[in-house]
Give the backbone structure.
Amino acid sequence: MNRYDYDLLVIGSGPGGQSAAISAAKLGKRVAIVERKLYVGGASLQTGTIPSKALREAAYLATRSASPGMRGTLHGNTANLPGFLADALSLKNQVVDRKAQQILKELNDYHITLIHGEASFTDAHTCQIIPTNNENNTSTPQHISAAVIILATGSRPRRPDAIPFDKECILDSTSLLKQSDLPESLIVVGGGVIACEFATIFAALGSRVTLVDSHAQVLAYMDADITSVLNENLTAMDIQLLLKTRIKEIRRSDKGVIALTDNGDTLNASALLYALGREPNYSGLNLHYAGLVADDNGWVRINSQYQTSLPHIYIIGDLAGRPSLASTAMEQGRIAVQHAFENEILQNTGLLPMAIYTIPEISYIGATENELIEANIDYVKGTAKYASTARGQIIGDEKGLFKLLVDKTSREILGVHIIGESASELIHVGQMAMTCGAKLEVIANSVYNYPTLAQCYKTAALDCINQLTSS
């Protein structure tokens, strides 16, 4: 490998790229990361996961009032305080800056070379890097070779040509996070994760939000009981839902933006968020010079170890396709490195916890009821309401819901679905139980701290047992 400049070249400094680089450095490999921006962390840190969740936390804190419970309702009276958005954005920026410094320190501690520049292949083992950090007033490209190359360039918001994005009123998820003024009213186009997260964030901050989606239900792929509770919360936040509706035209107006629907409605708002999907960042890499070919849908095929048709080139993160999560990208980076340098084949359990940071947050793992019905699996459902727990009453979460799906015959856990505070944390108990093949009785007979929301596991498990013994 010493005939190359590096043992590993990672293109992209997001969670997957970081994980791959540090994993290789721990194996004693010579590692470099190329990042085209002048900052590190990729979209996850700078324009996506971390800033949106930091802003969400500020919005959530603003919704807490004195009653009911100790922490309030979903629609408190503090969100409209003057300057609150500025304070929330300041908090978000502080979080991003601290995390960026942490990443830089880790790269330095592991002696990983960080190169700011635009990378493109010149051959299968070599990339041309055009500098984006012009401290030396030079843009002379450098050529870097590596034994192994991992592509982790992430994705970007989908921006159809027909939408007149202007970064002022007609926005994508990246430009929305850069707004300094809270829009008095906001149209959100889309009913997926990003759309629902931002809809609840800005409603909590005080904007009048209208969400428009072509489907009959937002997050329609999720468990129906969970989306039912979500709808209640959206209504409580005064979010107007226009479902089974398509936007056919978007244009600027003197007061902001106008959106025309296929139902003949004219919607006016201060701003509009277009949140219908993301696209992989392949452009500029010149994949053909490396000998890689995308399929008819524009994706490069990979195997279970994230290896392309060229054994030394791997693709991870959003470029690898669904589920396009920071958590999965980090694991993919580790798996790719172990395969490339240790010839070790790692497999995750396939049980991926999913979290949606709406207000309230949602998390789930495993099958939904509809999926079990379609698969003709005989199951039992156990539920627990946050309001029935002491912790739920303390925090004032009256609508939180926990749901357990269990195989009637084997008594194995088939799915866990949660909506309410700390859902993204609580889900990991279910994940470990399912990974270990734990039976229903393990959940039912475990002792949980009191008062905690985790007691919902026991309540739901006992609900299942009661149904099984009485049937």
